[in-house]
Each structure stands twice: as C-alpha cells, then as structure tokens.
C-alpha cells in the first residue's frame, strides 16, 4: 500500500525478530529500489512497559537506506552500526566508509540515499511502519520483505545444521572449503570454483562461505571486469554416482512418493545453485556495466538454493533414511535451458528465471498440498520457506530482465515474448499462479497465450536432453528409442 509519499511496510511488532530487514520496492513503471531497514535495540526490548513507549520512540530506532554502498556498490546489509554522541552511522563492510543513517552523509564526502521512517497507528490501533517512497517513480509497492540473515536475528539462531542430518558424506575432510592452493580472491573466482565443485555438500558449503566473505567485506572484488576473469564450465561436473543415474526428466517427474519427490526437488536445487553462480560468471564479463546490486541479488539466490538443498536433503534423510540424496536417479533438465541461453543475458533471464522459475510458482502450491494431505508438517514448512524464496527469485529475474531491456532500449513485455518464442519449445503452460507471479512483477501480458517455437532437436517441450555418452549397445539402443519417442511426441504436438 502507498500513501502520501510513504509505503506501508509491516506492523511494528513483526519487525522485532531481527535487527535488519531487506526491502525490495517496485514502482508502477517497473523500477526497483532495494533498501535495508535497520532497527536499533529499542526501549521496548529493554523490558519497558509497552504503554510507556511512544510511536516516535519506536520510529527513532528505525532507519532505512539504499542497500548498496554509493562508493563501489558493497552490499550494506552487513554494515556495522555504530552509535556515538547523537549520531548513528552504518560502516560499509568493504572500505569502511561510514554513512550517517539520518542524512546519508559520509565524512569521506559521499552521500548515501536514506529514507524517512514513520510509525503510524493503523485503523485497528496497531503501530505500523512506513518508509518514504523513492522519488524516481510512482505507485511504489513493497514486493519483498525479509530479515537480512540469521546472524542478525534476535535471539541469535541455533548452530548450523549437523551435516550428518543430511545423509551425505562430509567431503571437506579431503577437499577443504577454501582450497589450499590458489584460493579464490574474487567473487568470479569463487563462482567458477563452485561451478566446478562436483560434491553436492561441498558446493553448498562453498556457496555459504563465499557469500559470507562477500557480504562481510572479506572479499572486496567482484572481478567481472578483470581481463583474466575465469571461464565457467559448459556443464558443472557431478560426482560419478549422480551422473551414472541420470535419467529423462519425464521419468523423474513421474515419481509419486514423498521421498522420490524430495529427492527430485533436491536435485533441482543443486542445479539451481549452479545457475545462480553461472549467470554471474558467464555474463559478468560480457556486461561490465552490470551494477553490484546484480551480484548481491544472485549471491542471495545462490545462498537460498543452498539452503533449499539442505532443507530438502535433511527432510529426505528424516523421512526415508534408506534413500539418501544420490540413491535415486536424477535429471539435468534445467541445465539444458542454461546451455541454450549461453550467449544472451536477456534469454537467460527470460527462459530460466521467468519461465522455469515462474512455473515453479504455479506448481509449488500443489506439491505443498500433497505433503499436507499426507500429514507431513515438517516437509510442508520446508516447502513453504522454499516457495516464499522462489517468489523473490522471479522478482530478481524480472528486475534484471527489465534492467537489460532498458539498457538495450526495448520493451520488456514484447521482448520477453520474443525471447520465449525463440528459446522455448511448446506452450508456456498453465494453470498459472497469477497472484504470486504478479507479486514478482510477471503480469499476465508477459505469459498468457505464449508458445515457444524453438526448433525441435532432441528434447520435448520443457524437457532437456542430458549429456550422455552411450558406451554399450544397450544404451545406444535406448538412445535411439528415446529419439523415436521424441519425434513422435513432436509430431503429435505440432
Ligand atoms: S566504502 Fe563501500 S564499497 Fe567502498
């Protein structure tokens, strides 16, 4: 909701679990601003009776500023907050410039963009937090509100998941999270290292580590403009156990039991981690004008996908200890779409993030309902966390798709439809989760009555061929059979 230049954020009491929140705002014209809302420890936290707390006292504890540093674009979500005399400053994690949270002024001469925060009584008498709207657009709305990380939660979080819960081996005994030789020094080097990491748990550990280094200023270079930026692999390698059991996506999709579904979803999350790193590593160099916020958004996405993989494998381990991750066949369908979009950032964002990921928003509620009917409350809560995150991933796709369209001087809706016609096979299928798509910026005009016209090669619509090298006659025969089946499907669909 927006009103007289301010945007309604949330009831004040909902903002007491953490000390900082990430806000993503979108204007009616499709512009985005990402803000950090800082909450200092308030009088209410100090056990003062609530009837002695005034709205202005609460508002005095809240500050909002742009989430990227005006110096070189560091993510300010992990800035240190320092209070001295009557000033409160946020200290950037990269080069330690400090910015007054009221005025945005830095003693180094730069100025961060800050926003006024108000606490108002809503119709029901509850205190509600409002933030001043940015000036460069109209009809601003809040499209994402999330705590910055558990590190800043109140109370602090429990210790991280025990790896034994994931029913996976601990690879770090042999291969450390930070390689002993040539440890990565830039975000791009971390991206390529993680893409080349074949063990699923090590991929997760390295993602967590790299994002932590990046956010806390221990890694101050993105490295996408370097002439020697490393090149991402065409296909992220997989441990032998996962490659050997690679199957057709349609077969994998037919698994109906809960363990099979959790396993299949965990596999998708593994590829999704790679996709988040790949878009940074592959297009970072080709688009040197990409702002740091692009990398902040996609590192957040990589971290989310790692969290999803851990949640799903933990649930799989609890539900079905005899089928840990890696024991069932998997597919590599998502990567096929990554390969068809290697040469274009616009195509990558359209096909992976606004077709594949948006489709996830359509089907997740049905998946959650199935687990709910089975009385599996733990899996339901894990899947609900995942679904909420996936809405923000489509938002990220929409944000950067509109950015690249503005850069190229083209219309986002017609360009998206053209990219899908060129890079997708078959209909963009419904039924659509119109509400969650709309939250992410995907209005109906983007996707309704849309059909991909990509040439049929060796995959069915929305499917993908897995790179397989048949090494015996049986496999060759199977390949031929699949090829015939796909040709028949093609004829039937055309
Ligand atoms: S001080 Fe923030 S990026 Fe340099």
What does this 3D model show about the protein?
It is a single chain. This protein is an alpha+beta fold and 494 residues long. The chain has helices spanning 55-59, 187-195, 200-215, 240-244, 249-253, 258-284, 292-319, 333-340, 345-373, 377-408, 412-423, 434-439, 444-447, 473-493, and strands at 2-3, 6-11, 20-26, 32-39, 62-66, 80-84, 87-91, 98-100, 114-115, 117-121, 127-132, 141-147, 425-427, 451-453. Helix 2 crosses helix 6 (258-284), helix 6 runs antiparallel to helix 7 (292-319) and helix 9 packs across helix 11 (412-423). It is globular. FE2/S2 (inorganic) cluster is lined by residues 69, 71-74, 92, 94-95, 97.
Termini Cα gap: 45 Å
Count of distinct structural domains: 2
| Class of secondary structure makeup | alpha+beta
Number of helices: 14
**Order of helices and strands, N to C?**
EEEEHEEEEEEEEHHHHHHHHHHEHHEH
Principal-axis shape equals globular
Low-pLDDT regions:
459-494
Task: Return Rg in Å.
Answer: 24 Å
Q: State mean pLDDT (0 to 100 scale).
A: 85
Widest sheet: strand order? 9-5-4-3-12
Structure ligands: FE2/S2 (inorganic) cluster
Share of β-strand residues: 5-15%
Protein name: DUF455-domain-containing protein
